[in-house]
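cron nightly-structures :: item 1 of 1
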Amino acid sequence: MQKINFSASINAPKEKVWTCLWEIFHYNTWTSVFSEGSTVKTDNWKEGSKILFLDGNGQGMVSMVAANRPNEFMSFKHLGVVKDGVEDTSSEAVSAWAGLMENYSLSGENGNTVLSVEMECTDDFKEYFMKTWPVAFEKVKGLAEGTLKPVITVSAKINAPVSKVWEVWTKPEHIMQWNQASDDWHCPAATNDLKPGGKLSTTMAAKDGSFSFDFLCTYNEVKENELLHSTMDDGRDWKVIFKADADKTTVTERFEAESENSLELQHSGWQAILNNFKKHIESL
């Protein structure tokens, strides 16, 4: 067993750094260093509660919040693993490392914060963490200092094969049918030049004519039935990932947040559009 330590000086108050560590959209952003799609299932980080740290495939660790002193200290005790939805806290493989601790400390004043992480790990993971933690710290620092945008993730499992999902996602005549968050909106126009350097353009409008706006992005990467990676007109990054599983497909979107609306509102709006896509394609 190894005990390793990391620290970083951040030009932001402790309250801001704390939020960037544990608010879910910020948390998902900086922990993507360890696993793309990383997230957590938690009872609001309540001290003494169980917590699940999960990767993009739903695998991960079962842990406990050992301590939570807001803006000062957070501690986790790792208990076991999650594999294929099953929690294992008692197998021989788990017993070799169960009980390892991971501690986060914040100190400082006058708007500057020192973030320190101390963690216990097995010998075979030391090299991995020595490489990844400094990168994760840079993301936390960027989030807290305002140089990095939080990344929001929405996802839906579609009851359709990936080839059909790709077609309905990318063809303008389909986009105009599903690209709205609620029944009082619609998408009266869409064009899609599906190639690197090509542009996607859509118009979203209130059906009563009271408001409309255009959405424009440029494709950086196009992998049929797998990935669309683009840059929005305002410079934000957007990825759409298509994961096939027999005759079903999981669609996951990851996009950099904008600053005008709350993270929760952006998440709910994009999720509503994705849910409408699912409803549309499954009705065909």
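cron nightly-structures :: done
The CA atoms of residues 24 and 183 lie 29 Å apart.
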